[in-house]
Amino acid sequence: MSEPNPGVDGRALEAETTAYWRTVEQCSEMWRALAFPLAVSPALDRTFRVGFPLVAHSLNHAEAGFELRERSPHVAATSSRVALEHALAAQWALLTQGGPEQLVKHMQAGYLLRTKAFAGALEDDPALTLHVPEEDLRTLHEVAGQVPAPGKEREWSMERVFDRFSGTPLFYDLYRELSGAVHPSYSTIQAHLNMNDGGDRLHQRGQKLLAHSSARATALASALAMDFIERCQAVPPTPSPIAGVAGAAGLPHDLAFSDQAPDLQPFKGEAPA
Questions:
Q1: If you ran DSSP here, which 8-state letter would residue 42 be given?
Q2: pLDDT at position 198, please?
Q3: Cα–Cα dist 143/188, whole Å
Q4: Of 123, 151, 247, 252, which one has the fewest beta carbons inside 10 Å?
């Protein structure tokens, strides 16, 4: 889902981009207005404890992207990608039977892999641990010796998340496009080096090559993150504030209705009340 070609109405595209950033701003205002501690539905307590850190990270990155959208647009695109990834992960946990446990097992497997490698590196050079208490080293090796959950129990990937909540691969393409701002890529080269119009032109802060996609992804992430918080509350607000904000920008806020595998939901294919 690359940036539209020159034939697209530039003014309409700019207006849409502005509307998306306004959605981000509105969601940020809702996020900062939350009164803590939140009253969470007992039935969703475990889901909330797994998902809240993810949506908090998403919304904080959305704010960073909003602040950087003009000054460092390619950096803003990095935050857009992070925001979208974390908001979708939280939504997946909410909309999947056993989702919170499966996602945590996926995280744990990555942590154990790193811990095992770290412990092995220390064994290769005993001088590194000369001043480390024996108890700490024992704890490290106990953790490094743990076995991750079986593959099926921790099976999870962003590609599958995107495939599940969209009937088109273009949704995942949006994520991949923004990944160009995270990893070494053609996108980053193009953002900072323009070889057209005769001679090289350097762009210190980066061009707005991903401006529309960045705005759209950040707005969607913000709406999904706030939706997660709304749904987990003991008494969700009625009518839903985030439904109105997302709807005004033409964005979905409830992925239950685009779910390609509704049988995986804990609510038998229906969104939670």
A1: G
A2: 62
A3: 38
A4: 151
